[in-house]
Amino acid sequence: METPSVSEIGRIATWPWGRGTPVTLLREPDVAAGESNAQNTPIGFHQDRPDNGTGGVPFGRRLRDLRLRSGLSQKQLAHSSTLSVRAIRDLENGRVRHPRADSLRLLAEALGLNSPQMNQLTHDQMLGSPAEAAEPAVSGPFIGREQELAALTTMLGAEHHRLITITGIEGVGKSRLAREVAHALEAAEHSTVFWLPLDDDRLHCGKAPMGAPDQPAWWREVIHRGPDSRRRLTETIGESNSILVLDGARPEDELTDITAFLLAICPRLRVLVTTRNPDGMPLDTLFPLAPLAVPSPDTKPADLDSVASVALLLAQTKRIRPAFCPDAHVLTDVARICRALDGLPAALESAAHWSLIYSLRQLTHQLAAEPLTVARRPMGGQEPDAYASVHHTVATLSSRQRDLLSAMSHKSARETDGYWSVAELADEMGLLAADCADDIYHLVILGILRRVDCHDVAMFKVLNIVGIVGEHALAGQNDIAGQHTAA
């Protein structure tokens, strides 16, 4: 072996932390701030450029997030990659727009990234990897879903489930939970996350909403446009440890065959689906997401902030009105709002926005008169109102299920506060207990019932505003049925 020169000795380093056989790396010279280099940038390390319309997260911020997730300081990453601290700092601060190819390779090795992760890190448009910015925007803290997060990460991780379908009513937080699960697995396993919004307008018209990044054309066509796009997706995922989120699926998407195909071709892929209507999805993949817990009427004011829905509404209101400081009377109003809005995160966020022009006492009065005006986002917002899809959901029910829903909404239950057991409801409707149980199960999966356990008996109640919206939907269905009878 040829002896290295004195100048080369200073450029030799070994892999730290004792992970396996030491690997010899070459020390990269300091990168001057703003330096442009003519070397070809390796695939997966193309910089976001302000003029390419991607709207993606800058390379520097992505590099910083990966470093922090690995528990490394800038000095430690510099040591393990054999770059200088100044080079790392310039990259993370965006002062280096065109890092050298060797620098990028050394960073990838130091962070333990595989090829798909390298592509995701920098939105590689050559391979057309889906942009991370397609994830839903986050507008507040993640509160009250710790148990669901732990269960899903365990199922997709240690328990080796490869397909899970999160179901629930609009506004219950399915997309946000899926985002947190994907990020938790990404951090714990260094897995690659791909996000495909199935209910996004860009999938139907080929255009992204204003301010959102464009997806590659083939990515928008994965679900409905044939085998070529699916082949490109399987080539992109390959054998990497990956999470694919199919967000906002509908029955017409017919995901059963697609997910089976992807899981068969990509051995380390796991798929997380969110949907309001899981028709067609395998029964053993369903994970119904219930609304957040709401306080009982006898909960003491001092204990209210420990209830998930109250904690979320307080946090959202504080975010919008930093001077907000509730006393015991205000906390009582907060509890009433949470109960009236069923603990649905999207509706609670809307109520927090309305607190800019109404007091919380005014909002409680408004909820008593017309709950939908509080659940509605001010000025229409950029997202659909909570409960906007209830009409469609009710329309998909069988006539027996609609009758059952109507009875639960408008007749007095034998137990207090409008809750019904399966046996009581079957008796009320004149149904066999098994048939009633099937219907109740379907309504729970759709997310339009709340369950409580009372004296070791499961009890069910229609969500408050679902009953209001459903009344109009049921009336419309009955009008249609009457017209058909008359004809």
Structure description:
This protein is α/β, with parallel strands linked by helices and 487 residues long. Helix content is 45%, strand content 10%. The protein has 22 helices and nine strands. It has helices at residues 6-9, 59-69, 74-81, 85-92, 101-111, 115-121, 146-156, 174-189, 202-205, 217-220, 227-237, 255-265, 308-320, 328-340, 345-354, 360-369, 371-375, 390-395, 399-410, 422-429, 433-446, 464-486, and strands at residues 12-14, 24-26, 163-167, 192-197, 242-249, 269-275, 286-288, 449-454, 457-462. The strands form three sheets. Strands 4-5-6-3-7 form a five-stranded parallel beta sheet, with helices on both faces. Strands 1-2 form a two-stranded antiparallel ribbon. A hairpin with a 2-residue loop joins strand 8 (449-454) and strand 9 (457-462). The relative contact order is 0.08. Mean pLDDT is 77; it is low at 1-56, 122-129, 201-213 and 480-487.
